[in-house]
Amino acid sequence: MTHRGRNSVYCPFCRNPDSRVVDSRMADDGSAIRRRRQCPECGRRFTTVETTSLSVIKRSGVGEPFSRSKVINGVRKACQGRPVSEDDLALLAQEVEENIRASGAAEIDAHEVGLIILGPLQKLDKVAYLRFASVYQAFESLEDFESAIALLRHEAEVEAKGADAKRSEGKSSEKSPL
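Predicted structure:
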């Protein structure tokens, strides 16, 4: 519904279809805008929170709102028995949502969400990553697991060499006190 060419925000007190924005701020983790408004009719102030909608399209073709809790529940299964806290899972879900929102898409395929989870999960726990990847990358044989493990080992070696090079660089730049 529009009023004078813009979206109306009805005053929750007097139902006036007009309001004036007094203050706008980012809320939560930047995924919402909090606006303080004032009604010109009754003079009372109220707050609105504006968020963008993000829909996940399931295999059946049905869309549903993105849910961090569904991400957490799916990843929790892969993390069973691993040293991963609830806070770790919440941060992972936040990172996944931020990655999806950064793409600018209003809709995303559920399988694509699973693939996006892989990056943050790999950083969090390698074993949980392998468990999750075996489903979302459709591992069909031991060779698929071996390839994924070989890739993880290679990435760990590259990371270690980079860290060693930085340490060596830091030592060579230190001056001797003599």
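Summary: Helices lie at 68-78, 86-102, 110-124, 126-136, 142-173.
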